[in-house]
Model the fold of this input.
Amino acid sequence: MATIAPFRAVRPRPELASQVAAPPYDVVSLEEARTLAEGNPYSFLRISRAELELSEGVDPYSTAVYERGAANLRNLLQKGILEQENQPLLGVYRQKWGQHEQTGLVALASVDEYDRGNIKKHEHTRPVKEADRVRLIEAHESQSGPVLLFCRGTASFEHWLKGVTRTKPDVHFVADDTVEHTVWCVRDESEIQQIVQDFRDIQSLYIADGHHRSAAASRVRAARRNSRRSTGGYSEDGFLAVIFPHNQLQILPYNRVVRDLHGLTPKEFLDKLALNFELQASSKPGHPPAAGFDMYLEGQWHRAKPKHDPSLYRPHDPVRALAVSELTERVLDPLLGITDQRSDPRIDFVGGIRGPKQLAAMVDCGDWAAAFLLYPTTVEELMAVSDADCVMPPKSTWFEPKLRDGLFIHMLNDNSCDTSLNLQ
Done:
């Protein structure tokens, strides 16, 4: 059973939504955030990444940054740029990027179901990032970065979404990155109850993007319950989410760059790679073979195809068949000595949206020795890993397009949430 609930959303005035909505703060650099927010006093980056307004060199985890973001949020509320709904609602959020289109349900998901494992994970969190999210939620008294969830698509869910999207939207705009964003608000009680009941027939929800946000929501709820020695009936029992049918999501690869070849010359490294991979020079990177990768080294792209079927190596291990596992177990660990990708400074991660040109540029500038462009993890592979209670290697998936911050905000100081839906 999956429990969802409506909430009294804080939303931008429709005519200002395109100015308020912003990319998630952790997918843009500080320089990019400053550029995006320049000349736009309503940009949500001034709340989620408030260090862009402070002096150079400020610690992004300092109290001053969180307080500045909270003050900017209060300011937009006081000026009426952001407004809170009078009654709980649900939302529908559609994104269109080129030929790809995805439509999801905006609602509160259950912290209790997250804690029990009914909302399934596929990766570990990093303590620093999780703590940052906790402090952000606590300082702002709100959740503004929605967790991207998905479920196995059902006819009833998709029929409900189609019914809502036939009506006039509340918000529609095309962002500078060409992604089209459309939002509908569902306020009719019968429509809300219909989808809430339909979700009770869905066995599990899966986290696609937002492990740190959901973990932080759980930690904040636990701390608040401990401090007041009470249970249930509070707004922090749910966390902000957008839930998509599984067949609508698009996963791009999460690529890697490494600083050195661990004492090997490029030729020695290629010779060792050739023991497990068929290597071929390539002039068209970007479509590596399944479970393989494209590698950029010394100005040349190489295509690497595994010589052995990784799915046969450990047939009952869904993690082993992933392209990122091939790279980890046959290249990064044994050849390059990178045994902990979560902490080793010799490796960094580059989202698939950046493309092969940026990977090559990172190597050509001399800061990195080699780049690896991976075959993307599929949604079916992600579900198989999650269902087996396994964990993928760090940074195995990059979902695109990214959900925008600021279109829906869940206020934790609002105790008028509809608790009859049993978010416990």
User: Anything to note?
Assistant: Residues 418-424 have pLDDT under 50 and may be disordered.
